[in-house]
Design brief:
147 residues, alpha/beta, 3 helices
């Protein structure tokens, strides 16, 4: 397993929290855990003007056992230029501060509704598994003895 690569995902929690798409997103995250063969980081962000912090705390407590690896919840004003992720779901109606100025992701998927997040997570799984497979193949090739 190639563990030096930053396999990480950032989601805007306001797109699905306390909405009918919430369970659908959580189920797709479970699928991500089962199909991505490495530990990865899940980063939720919220806009305190849209989402109540208490709702986020309740969400985190309810799904504590579901989120298997490193998981964080941050307000949008605490995400700085160094908070880089491999894949980010971007809400074009509510972008992160200085979104255009700082490139905080390698891949992104724009969505304005929570119902489309599972499709974004499918893309995240494809990209992550491709990167991991290429890097595993390179690690295998360099570890073979030379003749």
């Amino acid at each position: 397993m190639y563990d030096r690569f930053n396999i990480s995902l950032r989601l805007p929690i306001h797109l699905f929290l306390k909405k009918k798409s919430q369970q659908m997103v959580v189920e797709k995250l479970k699928e991500c855990y089962s199909k991505i063969n490495t530990s990865w980081t899940l980063k939720f962000w919220m806009d305190p003007g849209i989402v109540d912090a208490q709702d986020v705390v309740e969400f985190a407590a309810k799904y504590e056992d579901t989120f298997k690896h490193r998981t964080s919840f941050k307000p949008n004003d605490k995400i700085d230029a160094n908070d880089y992720v491999l894949f980010e779901v971007v809400d074009p109606n509510n972008p992160l501060p200085n979104h255009k100025r700082f490139n905080r992701n390698r891949f992104s998927y724009e969505s304005q509704v929570g119902e489309l997040i599972p499709k974004a997570l499918d893309e995240y799984m494809k990209i992550s598994n491709f990167i991991l497979s290429v890097n595993q193949q390179k690690a295998y090739e360099t570890s073979r003895p030379s003749r």
